[in-house]
Amino acid sequence: MSHNRTEIKAWIDQARWFGGKGRDWELGAVRRVGRLPDAPEGLHVTIELAEVAYADGTSDLYQLPLAFYAEPQERIAHALIGEWEDDELGPAFVYDALHDRASMALWLAAFARHGIAPAPPSDLRGELMFHRLPGHDLDIETHSTLFSGEQSNSSVAFGEDALMKVFRKVTPGVNPDIAIHQVLTEAGSTHVAALYGWLDLVDEDTNTTIQLAMLQQFLRTASDGWDLALASVRNLFAEADLHAEEVGGDFAGEAARLAVALAEVHADLAEHFPVERREADALGELAAAMEGRLGAALDVVPALAPHEARLRETFGRLRDLDAVEVQQVHGDLHLGQTLRTVKGWKIVDFEGEPAKPLAERLRPDSVWRDVAGMVRSFDYAPRVVAMTGGADAGGEAEQRAYRAAEWAARNRAAFLAAYTAQRGEELDGANGVLLDAYLADKVVYEAVYEARNRPGWLAIPLAALEETS
Ligand SMILES: Nc1ncnc2c1ncn2[C@@H]1O[C@H](COP(=O)(O)OP(=O)(O)O)[C@@H](O)[C@H]1O
Ligand SMILES: O=P(O)(O)O[C@H]1O[C@H](CO)[C@@H](O[C@H]2O[C@H](CO)[C@@H](O)[C@H](O)[C@H]2O)[C@H](O)[C@H]1O
Questions:
Q1: Please, which residues bridge with residue 90 across strands?
Q2: DSSP symbols for 319-347
Q3: From the CA of 356, which ligand is nearest?
Q4: Burial level of 461, CB count in 10 A (0-12/13-18/19+)?
Q5: Residue 249 in contact with residue 235, Cβ under 8 Å?
Q6: Which SUPFAM superfamilies does the record match to this protein (predicted)?
Q7: Would you call 48 helix, strand, or coil by DSSP?
Q8: For residue 244, what pLDDT is reported?
Q9: Cβ atoms of 161 and 140 closer than 8 Å
Q10: Contact, 262 vs 371, CB < 8 A?
Q11: Whole-number pLDDT of residue 400
């Protein structure tokens, strides 16, 4: 089948979800792996997997759900990828199907038609398989709305009934987001959106499963933890004479409740996934991995260089520890992965850091990785308000910086106190060394992430390093 490769490459290149920004890449094979049944006259809906081949010899696979229309569609003109003649489907106007309600209705109907499926028999290789968990009847009358946020994947809400996340970068094998949601849903966890189902296929080329999408409970009453934190900071900045604990929008109570939710999720994950002990040699490998990431980051962000020695020292202290426990964790936790609902805090997006290889994301890790992720977020929120708030951002730069540090310290302390209390642990000895190492690893990751995705925000992790030096 023919694809207009130039237009597909251009579409991928500009997409928010494309993780290869700033790297040199070519479009490899584009394979059609499925077609949605029951499309109306004049529309074909397909799923294609596009290979992104980098100059360094590595490659990634990206999912492109496409809508082939015989006629141009004015309402989704912004999602037009191009106009070309497809070998199988003929001449067509080709759109990103996630923007198209008619296409998304076919995805929802396919989920609704499929019952609870056992493990797929091998003769279903190459076929799309829609799986469902018991306990929820889908409302197929709802309309789809594509989320517009800054995301690594693409999420489509079906009314207020369900949310479908379509994974953009796909890897053969288990998708941790689906696997963890399934386990936590079946365990009755109150801190995640219940999993309703998922879509996968057995890839004919490699004979392995590729998980393409996940359908889950839509958290109707949710407010994003990141937005709530920003609102709290703005409240503080608006009250020049008050301290963080004195303003109406104080976040410390929420930070503590969020910590309890995280500790409960960690306990559930420890119960349902393997818990392992990492002895000294494995801790040496962890230190070496963090040092390796720092080495690679220095090439991308040379401004990290003045902090290199101290960062290496922090990682090196892991080698002094005897042994630590590791388990399944979230892996990429920050305030944007938390939602406050009327029924308490929920944690979303268990896929791990999008840039990491799958094997690494599935490996058990320390809970302190997640704790460090949240603590870094408490540092980010006031810095973002101070940096982007203009004249309303709370007076002179020096005063803003002081108050930003006050907000971050208060919420960090509330979060850490509640987390350790819930687990019956102290933040000293090995726990302190682990937290410091994961904080340093995260700040290095952030520097690379910001340099590649939001260069204007690179100053945030760099300022954090500056102030703790
Ligand atoms: N179940 C849900 N109900 C409502 N909103 C959700 C739900 N899950 C995620 N979200 C919102 O969608 C955004 C993106 O979801 P996320 O899982 O983080 O996607 P990505 O993997 O693309 O980063 C989140 O920041 C959150 O605001
Ligand atoms: O949500 P994703 O899985 O795509 O995570 C990536 O993007 C995040 C930004 O959206 C990034 O988080 C960083 O910025 C946040 C504010 O926008 C801040 O709260 C986090 O602490 C900071 O790390 C995340 O690191 C990245 O993996």
A1: 86
A2: GG--EEEEB---SS--GGGEEEETTEEEE
A3: 2
A4: buried
A5: yes
A6: Protein kinase-like (PK-like)
A7: strand
A8: 67
A9: no
A10: yes
A11: 80
Dihedral sign of CA atoms 307, 309, 312, 318 in order: negative
Specify whether the backbone of 92 is left (phi greater than 0), alpha (psi in -120 to 50) or beta.
Answer: beta
Q: Return the residue whose CA atom lies nearest to atom 12 of ligand 1.
A: 155
Residues 377-422: tens digit of each pLDDT = 999 999 999 887 655 555 677 778 888 899 999 999 999 999 999 9
At a CB cut-off of 8 Å and minimum separation 6, what does 58 contact?
A: none
Q: What spatial distance separates the first Cα and last Cα of the chain, rounded to whole Å? A: 57
Task: Please report which ligand is nearest the Cα atom of 151.
Answer: 1
CA of 152 to the centre of ligand 2 (A): 10
CA dist., res. 137 & res. 133, Å (int): 10
Q: Is 89's pLDDT higher than 60? A: yes
> Is 449 near ligand 2, meaning CB less than 6 Å away?
yes
Report the predicted TM-score, pTM, of the whole model to 2 decimal places.
0.90
Residue 56: CB partners within 8 Å, gap ≥ 6?
A: none
The residue whose two tokens read 């058990």 is 364
3-class secondary structure, 375: helix
**Best probe residue, ligand 1, of 348, 351, 377 (max atoms within 8 Å of C-beta):** 348
Pairing outcome for strands 144-146 and 209-217: unpaired
SS (H, E, C) 440-462: HHHHHHHHHHHHHHCHHHCHHHH
Q: Which residues of 1-36 are buried (b: 16+ CB within 10 A; e: fewer)?
A: eebbeeebbebbeeeebbbbeeeebebeebbbbbbb
Distance 121 CA to ligand 2 centre (A): 39
Query: Ligand 1 center to residue 220 CA distance, Å?
Result: 12
Q: Is the C-beta atom of 155 inside 6 A of ligand 1?
A: yes
- Find out whether the beta carbon of 98 lies less than 6 Å from any atom of ligand 1: no
Q: Answer whether 226 contacts ligand 2 (Cβ < 6 A).
A: yes
Distance CA(370)–CA(348), nearest Å, equals 13
| pLDDT at site 401 | 83
Measured CA to CA in angstroms, residue 70 lies from 67, 91, 144 at distances of 10, 7, 22
| Cβ of 335 below 6 Å from ligand 2 | yes
